[in-house]
Amino acid sequence: MLADDTGAVLGVTRSAGNRRWIWRDPRLAEADNRLALALAQQANIPELLARILSARGVSSHDASSFLNPRLRDAMPDPSCLQDMDRAAERLAQAVRNHEHIGLFGDYDVDGACGTALVCDTLRELGCTVSTHIPDRLTEGYGPNTIALEKLLSEGATLLVCIDCGTAAIDILNGLTDRADIIVLDHHKPDGAALPKGIVVNPNRLDCVSGLNNICATAVAFLTMVATIRLLRRTNWFDGGQAIPDLLQRLDLTALATICDVMPLTGLNRALVMQGLRVMSRGERLGLATLSSVAGVKEEASAMACGFALGPRINAGGRIAQADLGLKLLLSEDVVEARALAEQLDRVNRQRQTVESTILDSAMEQAQQQLDAGHAVIFLHGENWHPGVVGIVAGRLKERYNRPALVAALTDGVIKGSARSVPGLDLGTAIITARQDGLLLTGGGHAMAAGFSLAVDRAEEFHASLNAQLSTALSLPKQDALKLDGIMTLAGASIAVADQLARLEPFGPGNEEPVLAISNVRCVKSERIGKDGNTLRVILQGEDGGTRLRGLVFRAGDKPFATLLEERSMPLIHVAGTLRAETWQERKNLSFFISDAAPA
User: Fold this and answer.
1) What's the pLDDT score for residue 87?
2) Top-level CATH class of 9-20+480-598?
3) Residue environment code for 161-171, b if the CB has 16+ CB neighbours within 10 A, otherwise e
4) Is the pLDDT of residue 585 over 80?
5) Which end of the chain is more exposed for a tag (fewer CB within 10 A), N or C?
């Protein structure tokens, strides 16, 4: 089954989901892939794994470190980050003098995890620490004078901003005569100008660390490594003070890296692998309790973080009390942790309801904009909740394969969030629009950004985005489905699923392998779940004997679902991911269907 960049796999030029199926890499189609065969022999791994790794550019020399990454091998010298040594020195000084430190964190998962990591570590080192997570609706993104003044009034002599602060030049510069300021961030700055304090940000223009794709919690982790290293070098621990175990805090770094959608390669892969191992031990009470409340029964995984834990921690910052997630991550009381976890679970359900009230209207308006020839989707509504517009933007991006910006309109100001597709740098486009005077605020990174503007600049802003990101017009309505292999139903087994699981954790830069299973019939289908939006099917091979359970989530949004439910049970090809999941000490094989096409 050969395919080139313009061809199709299994003859699928357009599936029932209106997508082309292509190879993720042309080498996957080669029957005699010598590189893959050599990799299988030299790394002593199955040929299927070798083919996938080879297509992803992993050599025999790197295979072992990819499959079993060690943090000691991937860990950079924290001093490679611009101004890291200055930050470590000031934090070490605060530790030596038992200073009161004020932490200001963002209201998302990355902000909560980074703030928890720094708070936990500094408290163990003997500092008094106060924290503040801003309310999304009343305070907005980033440091604000009132909150920072409150931290100072509580006694803080050092302010640390986490996952924010790079763009807050005027606000932070107005306080430098009252306290020292450190910014631990990863968002792109608006040019070369930075606040007067110490800014550790791998995306600042003069930083040559090469760590552009780490999240703010990873920056915070490296900062704590540098601080403890400096304290050790100056013999501060000789007095009997315990040395904090930073490896035990990698659960926070893993959760933030996954939920901030960072590439799971290199350092990030090592941080997440180690962090998930820590998380699986269940030693952080808040996360263990939230996992229980969320119904997460398997070991910690990227999927559990991204789809169960992360949304619940985010929910507080979206539509409720912004610091609920941070309180849970820091909780050491069983009763408190349970109450917080249950509250976040309730808030997350409320968030889903609020989101659904906006989504249908947003989908309709988005289609109208695309029909009108816009390259970028830009929507706003008066009754739209600011806390869920980012999620809606993400859904629109997934549905239409276009950059999407969704915002709430309040008192003449449009304020919202943006999500982009791979290859289109939305953060730079937002910053450019801000520099051109179209925005009141704006910033972010390539795949996600935030913005605000006066309502009378909306058309001009949309035109600017269309011009800057005009190449989006050439994108298909749905991105091609990229396959990593083809198999028969008889070839789908728990052993194969276990082989594929060795490539975890999955995410950007290391996508979960997508397999096509050819020539099957859907002999049973039923809608399940509270809302009936999950489709469960039984796939049967041509031999009439081999069967496999298949699942389709959000089936109502999937055009190919009707093909699976056809009573005539036509011969079809299906594409998706093969997983072996453990339930009540028994392994079960499931195929999570991404698309289907007539055979």
Assistant:
1) 98
2) mainly beta
3) bbbbbbbbeeb
4) no
5) C
